[in-house]
Fold Glucose-1-phosphate thymidylyltransferase.
Amino acid sequence: MNIDYCLFEDEFLDNFHPLTLTRPMYDLRVGVFTLAEKWSYALKSDRDFCGPLREHLKGVFPEPELKNKPDGVLWINPRYVPLPVLADRVRDLDMMEYITHEGILVAALVDLKTHRSWMKKGIQLNSFKGAQQELHETELVILKNIWELFQMNGEQILFDISISGKIAYGEEDIFPHTVFTNPDRIYIEEGAKIEPGAMLLADNGPIYIGKNAHIMANSIIRGPSAICEKSVVKMGARIYEDTTIGPVCKVGGEISNSIFHSYSNKAHDGYAGNSVFGQWCNLGADTNTSNLKNNYSSVKVSDWKTGRDTDTGQQFIGTIMGDHSKTGINSMLNTGTLCGVCCNLFSDGYPPKHVPSFSWVSGHDMVPYHFEKAVEAMSRMMERRSITLTPAYEKMMKAIFESTSF
């Protein structure tokens, strides 16, 4: 059967703001890959994996097109990680069959009439006449909250390597004067450079080094970790377990159990732990994230829409930072900080734990970031990586700016 794919968002979307203010749910990175890439590998398909977009994301991300003249379209909820059990169930769906979990749609194979209706009006499961399958919690790995991205990251690095079929290439002879432990668990892509004195320690899990990545001298990486395509690990950096450095990032200092999406920098000393950073973030020299309260109690994180604190029940949560946000040198970020899109944090004290998008923050003094100045800074940063700020991208940012309550 000739099938196209459509990845959709559900009512849990707000739980992943501010990262999902500037991207669809399927573009979140956990492990080596984004959620869309995971499903592409799991279903062994070379088709486009995208989905219906919120209005302000249109033009920035692709929308589904029925250019392959498919017999049907497989709608998939990307919050559900495609473990083999789930991927097999999804792959075996017949036309007009669907899978649910506690009343939430996980996947459905629909005809073109239904697909077009859902694209126009949204998913209408109540009127759907297909055959239903129910999955149990024990069969699933589900993302429900934003901090689960870094909590799942180590096991997802293992999972992504397994579904991608990548071959270990950790031979010390190719990279002289380096130290590799368990080289059969070190996966190095074409064009990667590893300088003398670097240590890749895969005792506790695999290490993935992407195409044209650069691991500088005397840096230490402990697995499971992933350094993705064209990223740079600077001299003397310490990368601890369960960390992903996304494509075209530059990192130094100490990083533990954290995720950097693409084009973000933490190029100098300082600590980032149990944290997630979006695209185009920049952490100034000696920026430090607190990830554990002094009294060892559970961390509270603000609800993105209401600003009310929620007790997460988790002991370790650092910083969640949206795209294009930055810190000045010697910045300190409190435990459970939630920072929106395009913020500028500079202070010799702790900024607020909840920072709305487009905020200019000095200590507890917080004012709106002038939109024109913010766009100018975005454009300059992107030009440094030969990326053009498009009108659609600026329109997306303008929509986020106008929807922000200061």
